[in-house]
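Sat 14:20. Reprocessing the chain from the morning session after the first attempt stalled halfway. Input below, unchanged.
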Amino acid sequence: MIPIRDSIPCNTKPYVTWGIMAICIAVYVAMLFMPDEMGQHFVYMYGMVPIRYSNPDWAYSFGLPPDYYLSFFTNMFLHGGFGHLLMNMVFLWIFADNIEDLMGHKRFVVFYVLCGLLATYAQWYFYPKMAVPVVGASGAIAGVLGAYFFRFPQATVVILVPILFYPLFFHVPAIAFLGFWVIIQIGDVFTATFLDNVAVDSAWWAHLGGFVAGALLHPFFIEKKPPEYQFQSDE
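Finished this time. Tokens:
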């Protein structure tokens, strides 16, 4: 299921959201021009490698000097591939503008970064010995989704479901779409935690931690009450 748009109009220009998207895309494009060895080193230096902080001696021997937890921030702007980048930017484009509209630009910056940091911390806490870099805006975006879930339960989302080569479009309540997303994260966390020999191919704890952070923290960042929106037509 791929979200296409939501029914909530945005009353202000989401400059911060656009800026975050621009930075993520620019970093990804820059990495495409790096030699493979340089690109891999870049990801290990600025992606969050959990064992770097739980075992500093190992990290130093591997060529990762102390960075004073800088990668908890920088990993939010790195992505592991075009599909990873594309899906994150789609979710950011659809859901972040309305949250930025409610919070204002400055408050939204702080909220977004704080959710990203807490999401990264959650991933480190539950997988402290993982030697694979954690990268992506997913944790911070999950915080946005947590805020959206509680602030716009009346919204609808248009989703694309490709059946073979034929695209089907459906209008579903945002609360149902995001609730299903949370259930998937919980299922993946359960599978990776309690079942042996299951590869951890995504930062599930970061997703879930970011969502919880956004759900709990967003009331402290709301600058104004939600206006009476005139919903966009689903036709």
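The mean pLDDT is 89.
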